[in-house]
Design goal:
Elements lengths: L1 H10 L6 H29 L4 H16 L3
Length: 69
């Protein structure tokens, strides 16, 4: 719902007020957390001998992704 709704609003397929657009953004932003958690768990299981490297690489990517450098 989040990213698809934002895309549709930007492209003009749907018209929404700013409060609804904000709600779409909040839903989309919270979805990113689930994707990041899935990436961490999957990579930790796939590379058990390299957990430190995997955790460091994913943390670095997460910092760049969120802009919290």
């Amino acid at each position: 719902m989040g990213y698809l709704s934002l895309w549709a609003a930007v492209r003009g397929y749907i018209t929404v007020n700013y409060a609804t657009l904000l709600a779409f953004g909040l839903v989309a932003a919270s979805a990113v957390v689930w994707f990041d958690a899935g990436a961490v768990v999957t990579n930790m299981r796939n590379f058990p001998d390299e957990r430190g490297t995997v955790a460091g690489a994913l943390a670095l990517c997460g910092r760049f992704h969120t802009g919290a450098v």
